[in-house]
Amino acid sequence: MTAAHPHLAAPIDAILTTRQAAHELGVSISTAQLWMESGALASWKTPGGHRRCRLSEVARLQSSGQGGATAPRAETLAQEFIKPLTATYPMLESEQLRLKALAASGLIDSPPDPLFDRLTWLASRMTGCPMALMSLLTSERQWFKSRVGLEAAQTPRDAAFCSHAILSPEGMVIEDAWADERFARNPLVLSEPYIRFYAGIPVTDRQSNRLGTLCVLDAVPRQLTDDQHRALKELAALVSDEISRAK
């Protein structure tokens, strides 16, 4: 016999209204609506236009660390998965789909992962760069799931080199940021961590949505050898494989 949920007295994978989902998550109805619309909480619309979701999806969101947050924090996070009407950074044409996939991954603000930390460390060692990051891009910030050689846990999205790197499946290499008009006045170039060199390869989910990058950085201009560039690509592929397995 299927177990009953203590609050709803319904099957464990019951269909919930937006109000019921909000109650289970401990957030406002407006926050639950934002999560449903952005894809952070998987849902569908009835013929009458009302949102519905499964209780199992509510449980998945709670296990990711987002459910149960205070309503103001939850609503702020939900907004990060909505494509901005205007932005000072470049975006993919599929930016809203990308943000929806990022929300569904549950990676943003999740705890450290030893596997991602090993891959980031290897990226630094194999390329000889003092800084390496697994970077994920919401609409407002660049958040580092893993980082080596950098104290900051995130930066504003409009300062992110990775916003440019995800525009191509091949990523991007900047040998000297001072010589590139896109980045010469970037605050991450003019102040800590004083980026001069950047190389980033997109990391993707199972549907090939580019959620962010595996990137390496240096405070001096430099180049990667062919082998180092290949190593960075292979490590980014391993990050993507792990993201796909976790979904």
From TrEMBL:
<dbReference type="InterPro" id="IPR029016">
    <property type="entry name" value="GAF-like_dom_sf"/>
</dbReference>
<dbReference type="Pfam" id="PF12728">
    <property type="entry name" value="HTH_17"/>
</dbReference>
<feature type="domain" description="Helix-turn-helix">
    <location>
        <begin position="16"/>
        <end position="62"/>
    </location>
</feature>
<dbReference type="InterPro" id="IPR003018">
    <property type="entry name" value="GAF"/>
</dbReference>
<dbReference type="Pfam" id="PF01590">
    <property type="entry name" value="GAF"/>
</dbReference>
<protein>
    <submittedName>
        <fullName>GAF domain-containing protein</fullName>
    </submittedName>
</protein>
<feature type="domain" description="GAF">
    <location>
        <begin position="112"/>
        <end position="241"/>
    </location>
</feature>
<dbReference type="InterPro" id="IPR009061">
    <property type="entry name" value="DNA-bd_dom_put_sf"/>
</dbReference>
<dbReference type="InterPro" id="IPR041657">
    <property type="entry name" value="HTH_17"/>
</dbReference>
